[in-house]
Every structure is written in structure tokens, then in C-alpha cells.
Amino acid sequence: MDTLFSNVTVVTMDEELRVLFSAFVGVTDGKISYLSKEAPTEQPKQIINGEGMVLMPGLINCHTHLPMSPLRGYADDVDLATWLNDYIFPREDRLDGRCVKAATLLSIAECLRFGTTSVSDMYYFCDEVAQAVAESGIKANISRAITYFGDDFDFEKDSRCQELVALKEKWHGYDNSRIRIEAAIHGEYTSNHQVWEQVSDYAKAEGLRMHVHLSETKSEHEGAKERHGLTPAQVLDCHRVFDVPAIAAHCVWVEDEDMQLLAKRGVTAVHNPCSNLKLASGCARVQDMVKAGMNVALGTDSNASNNTLDLFEEIRAATYMAKGASLDPKALPAQAALLMATVCGARAQGRQDECGMIKLGLDADLILLDFTQPHLMPCHNVMSHLAYCVNGHDVVMTMVRGKILYSAGKYHTIDLNAVVKEFADYVMPKMFGREEEKLG
Amino acid sequence: MDTLFSNVTVVTMDEELRVLFSAFVGVTDGKISYLSKEAPTEQPKQIINGEGMVLMPGLINCHTHLPMSPLRGYADDVDLATWLNDYIFPREDRLDGRCVKAATLLSIAECLRFGTTSVSDMYYFCDEVAQAVAESGIKANISRAITYFGDDFDFEKDSRCQELVALKEKWHGYDNSRIRIEAAIHGEYTSNHQVWEQVSDYAKAEGLRMHVHLSETKSEHEGAKERHGLTPAQVLDCHRVFDVPAIAAHCVWVEDEDMQLLAKRGVTAVHNPCSNLKLASGCARVQDMVKAGMNVALGTDSNASNNTLDLFEEIRAATYMAKGASLDPKALPAQAALLMATVCGARAQGRQDECGMIKLGLDADLILLDFTQPHLMPCHNVMSHLAYCVNGHDVVMTMVRGKILYSAGKYHTIDLNAVVKEFADYVMPKMFGREEEKLG
Q1: For residue A430, with 0-12 CB atoms within 10 Å meaning exposed, 13-18 middle and 19 or more buried, which class applies?
Q2: A240 within 8 A of A205, measured Cβ to Cβ
């Protein structure tokens, strides 16, 4: 046994949502190898004293854009069109692979610090995203967002699609599938049926999953109906996008029939409550989607629109938003929101046999939280505290496949000082120019 | 000069909302005595290096019930009637002064840790609340909630009112007005016109301010209209409650005419977004109240309904709720929410000449935040980060009147171990009985 967590409160997130007090969790060769109220007889190489601590599965962030960290807080309190056209797009135009690598490492440091062990990322310069993921030890499903505004799309000739192909060849399955590559169509409104069909056919042929933005804003949703006489979900479905397992990010404006369709097609909705509130996109009908039989997971969206990657904040925001919108304090209870951030996230990533629970044989993707602080006293109900009192700052250790990537303020795979220096020397001057170098 | 913060980013919250970079703030005899981009010539007794840090005014929590910490997370995800009748009231019946003192100290530790330097509290066993406040060094406006369900109320004979009188005699003005006593009517629906008039007349005669719950739930608001043909704001106003400066907590269901009335009477609305969302009370129309000319401050409500006393979470929740409800991302920008938690809070407490800004001559009620962590990089706009990225965990020092009460994990006036022991030995057994002692 490599590591033993002793005398710890274990929130398993298993089928019975068991919580074990003063329990023991052992890790061997990156897997959970022991789980009991009794101490093991075997001597572990390392013991982590879990007194006063809670051990739970690492959180799974199913929709984000890690390379956007340089734009965090760059344009708040403006409308979406201004945000995109006057602030985000002009700066993104200046990005290069070197920026993306440093930016992704900074975001991964934030993820690890706040207890996230796996992410579903959609962006570009994905080779550099994958390099950062590979170095850092986090898990990721990485997708290259395809946009296309012409009318003669050819997958074989399109440079973005060829990036996807190269990415798949180089990174899909890396490190025993710690990295997986997915296909991605940015959205219905940023491409056409040629793209949808050809990218989806490629994904199906290669056994890749799909990541797409869906009905995030009212104008996007209504626009599709004007353009096609169909909702975004319906039109993408007609053109084979949901022939492979898919993540549909946001789903704020999906209609009842969309929910039925998406449930039947096994599509996961990824709810991003903080982004949806901050950008005023609307309120996703999470409970209705669950009732319709959809898998619903959680995401942070990028730290340019949120502005943090703390998934515990999304857990709380999801419960608050559901209760507030329905005027029902029983709506989306703590357990349901915690499931969205763990078990449902693993399912959304196709990793349900690998992580999302504390269970023998699964990967040791584990986080430890300090429950001895004043704001967590007393503790009548651990899961309630995880939803309503905890945030990412309470995480004191983050482990992926048995390897500690973050603990007590230290990043064990990321040289944060080097990242900060790279931001000062290269990323900020490149993206914001000399006149704004001071911002770095 | 007692203390100098050097090379620090200063968010003044002054009339021009100035932010000074690499600045110097000096503290002498509990007051802010120096504020400049230049280092002072005078040698301070103590220098706090502010590089990478942000210094801002301590936050002001204008509606809470500090002694409720033993009930934190005791009953979540239930409807309000069940929460009150089956969980909260039966446990509150077991409270005594000793419980209240320990519970208040625990809550104050949480406040200090999260950057709150002044609170407006409404509860009972207020002598013990005042003792805890006095010992801890935090500022507080303390009020004894009056409820009365009979029809022959007599202020002179009512034990609760006599508690208020004793409280006022003993504590009002304590430590150069660090503690102030206020009158409090729990709510329109928990008392009658005899109470409103007699308590208000006492407050007016003694120069006390008033604290009242107002239109928190729809049933409370509509109930008043059925009972009196008037809204809660109107009926309380008719019976002299707003003859003194008042805090009206919640104001979720106030109508346009109420806003006009409350603005005219100088009443502060205290917005408690997390509590209102979690208990599904509704969405206060903050922007309309501000437009009507009302002062609007922020509160956490108790940690039984929230479930933390982190006012930074309320700042973010206030902005999110306003944007989400209006579908306007420009609604309630960062600066407006930060003003609610500082300047508007000081005004609500009658402390506007004493705190709420960083300004020469005001009390040195200051908090220091560590801006060197990954989730705060880069920093394009400090005030945006304070609203959208920061939470109470980023606070590394809390000072009231020049005295450091919390720094780097240490409480300098509260013996947290003793409080924890008192919870285990007395509070939890007393409130939850033998069968539930383990919960402590």
C-alpha cells in the first residue's frame, strides 16, 4: 500500500451515498485498494492523518476553457456582445501556443488548489493544452473547438480539423487515458451542416466523444429556430452530432422536447450556474432536465466569464439558483449538486468506471478538506457542509491516480514561479501590449 | 505611528473610489493617520509589508444572528415552516446565556477570519452577545428581538423590553461606542401596534436606532395586507417604527410605494442574497430600491440559514442575483456591491463618520487580502477581483481600530480552542442532548 488516509471522514459518493466516519482509505498503484472502518494490517509507505478531515472524490469540471486565464476579470459588467467583440476576441487574436501553455498551467494550478481532478476543456492551440495537462498530472478530455462560416467545408482540407486529427493521433489515450481527445463543434450558430456531419462522422469512426455549446443564450436559441425552423438541439441531432456520446454545455434555453431528445440520445447537459448568472444568459432548468432523464454535470466555464475555477462555488450556486428560481427551498438538495460535480461528471467524460466515487478499484482521484475551521463548526451533516459551507479554499490536498499534485499551498508538478515569470515576461506583453504591461 | 502598511494596493472606497498602487497607510491610536503614494518620514512601531496584497475597509455585515452557529447546517433543504417548527425553534428553546456566549464567539471568529469588522446583530440573551463582542474586539450594533403575541402589551412590564433597557444602560456606547444597542421589533407578523409604538417611543427617547425584519417572505407580506390593509412597511410606519433611523432586513417583497416611503424615512434595506436564495424567499429588487433613493447594505443572515458568515460571498451573490434576475450583465456592477458591503453598511449602522472607507481620521478598521494566489492572477481590475474572484479565505489580516484581531490563521482575542471545548462540553449536549452529542 502506497498511501493510507487514517481516521478520516469518507464521503464516498457511491450508490448509497455512504459517509464513513473515522475510516481508512488505502491507495496502491494509483488505485483505491482499501476502504474500511478498521485499520489495515498491511503497513503503508505513507500515512496521511485524516483526523478532522473529509476525504471525497476529486471534482470534475465538465466545461471550461483553461487557456483563458489571462483574460480573467478583463471585462466585467458589460453586455455579451461588447465583452466578446471589444475585449475577448481582439485579445484572443494575439494568443499563440506559448501563451496558451502558460495560461493553461495557471488554470490547472487553480483547479488543483480548489479540488478539481478532471476537466473537459474546449479551446484551440490544443497541443499546448495537452502538454500542460500531461506535465501537471490532472486528467482532461480536450477538444479543439471547430468554427466555420463559409459554405464549402471540407474536413480533409480544413486546418482546424487537421489539428483535431493530429491531436487525436498524438494525445488520445495518453498515459493510460489520463488524456482523451474529443471532437468539438463550437456551436450551431458558428458553423453549418457540412461541419456538423463531417466532424461527427470523424468522431464516430474514431470512437471520440463530442463537446458542443448548446442554447446558452436566448438569441442563439431563437436564432436557430429562425434559421432552420428547429431548435439547436434538434438541428444538431438531424445532422448526426449526437451519434456519439456528447456534452452539451449550458442548455439554458432548451425546451421540453429538446430535453426528451437529449435524454434519448444520452447527451449530458453541463450546467454553468456562475457563468450563466454573471453573463445574464438565463437560468437552466436543471431539475426538469434530470426529470427528463438527462445526465447533468457541472462546469465553471472559463475564468474570463466566471471568474474562478472553483467548482465548489458552482455546487452552491447550482443549489441556490434552483431554489431561488423555483421558490422551493427543497429544490436541488446538497446531495444532488454533489453528485453533479462527481458521479455525473465522470459519466459525462466517459470515465464512470474510472473515477467519481471512492470505491475499491477506481482511480485514487481524491481530495482532502480541513473541517476544523470555525466556519465548518459544528458539523451536523457532512454533505450539507460540502454544498453550503465549503469552497475550494478548504481543500488541503489534491491527488490524481494516487499522486499528490497539490498539498498545503504547494504545487508538486507545476512550477508556479516559472508560470508567473512567463506571464510577466511573455503572456501579458504579447496579449496586452506595452501600454498595459503593468497589468501583469 | 503604530502600524504602517507599505507598498500595498489600497482600495479606499472613498467618494472617488480611488485605488492606489504601491501606497502607504499609517495607523496611529486606532485611526488612519497616513495615506500616500510616498513613504512617511516618521518611523512606525510596526511595518506590515503589503507587496502583492490589497488593503481595504473591513466589511460590515448589517443583518445577522451570531448566536445561531450551533444550528449551522442542522436542517437544510426543507421548507421554511419545517425548518422553523421542527428544527430551529425546538433547539432554540434549549439555549441559555452560556450557549449564546460560546456560539457568538465562534461566529465572531468566523466574521474576523472572513474580513468582517462590524456587525448588526438581532437575537436574545444579548448581554452574553455583548460580552462576546466586548472581549473579541469586533464592532457591533446589538439588538434584542421583541416578539409579542398577546393584546395587553406594556413596555414597563415586559421582560424582553426590560432586557433591552438593561442592555442599553450597560452596553450602549461601550468602548467609545464600539458597541451600540439598538431597539428591535422582530417583525410585523410577530407583534402588534402596542409593541411597535411603545418600543419605537423608547428608541426615540433614548436616541437608539431600530432593526426589524421586513417583507422577507411573500406570505409575511401578503399576510400584513390581509390583516391591516397595508403593507408591512406602511403599517410599521403608521405606528412610528421609522421615527428613528432603521434597518429593514430583507425587503424581498416591498412594493414600489414601500420603496418611496422607506427612502423618505431614511430606512436602510439590508439585502441577504444567499439566505434569500437558500430559503427560497425571493429576489429583492436591489436596483429599484437604490433608484428609489434607499440606502442598501448587505447581510449574511444567520449561519443557520446561509450557511456561512462570509460577506464576500454575499457581494458576489448580490451581483449574480441582480444580473440573473434582470437578464442584464451590467446590473449591479462590482463597485456597487462593494459599496453596499462597506460605505452603505457604515451608514446603516450610523457609523458613516467612523468607518467604511480608508480615509484620514477614520477608525483603522482594515483588512488585508493576499493577491498572489493563482486564482487572482492576472489582475486587470482590483475591484472586479474583489467582487468576482475573492472570498473570505483570501483575507490574511483583520484589524479593528488599529488592533489586529485575526492574522494568518490566528485569532488574537478569541481562544478558539476554549470555544471548541465549550461546544463539546456544554453547548452541543445542552442543545442536542445525549443522543446527538456525537454531532459536536
Answers
A1: middle
A2: no
From chain A, the residues in CB contact with B331 under 8 A are: 280
Q: A65-79, B72-86, B282-296 — which is least confidently predicted?
A: B72-86
- What does CATH list as the number for A3-57+357-410? 2.30.40.10
Neighbours of B335 (CB within 10 A): 16
Average pLDDT over residues A66-81: 93
Q: How many CB atoms lie within 10 A of CB B249?
A: 27
Amino acid letter for position A161: C
Q: Nearest Cα to A216, choosing from A265, A266, A258, A254?
A: A254
Interface test with A, best of B113, B250, B312, B320 (most A CBs within 10 A): B320
Q: Return d(Cα B98, Cα B115) in angstroms, integer.
A: 26
- A76–B334 CB contact, under 8 Å: yes
Domain boundaries, chain A: 3-57+357-410, 59-348
Contact A280 B326 (CB under 8 A): yes
The CA-CA-CA angle for residues B371, B373, B377, to 5°, reads 75
Question: Domain B3-57+355-408 in CATH: superfamily?
Answer: Urease, subunit C, domain 1 (2.30.40.10)
Rg (CA), chain A: 21
* Residue B438 pLDDT > 80: no
Supply A392's cell numbers.
Answer: 475550494
Interface confidence (ipTM) of the complex:
0.96
Q: How far is A222 from chain B (nearest CA, A)?
A: 16
Write out the CATH class of domain A59-348.
alpha beta
**A12-57 residue pLDDT tens:** 999 999 999 999 999 999 999 999 999 999 999 999 999 999 999 9
Nearest neighbour of B416 by CB, restricted to A77, A334, A374:
A374
User: What global pTM score does this model have?
Assistant: 0.97
Q: Looking at CA atoms only, how far is residue A122 from chain B in angstroms?
A: 20
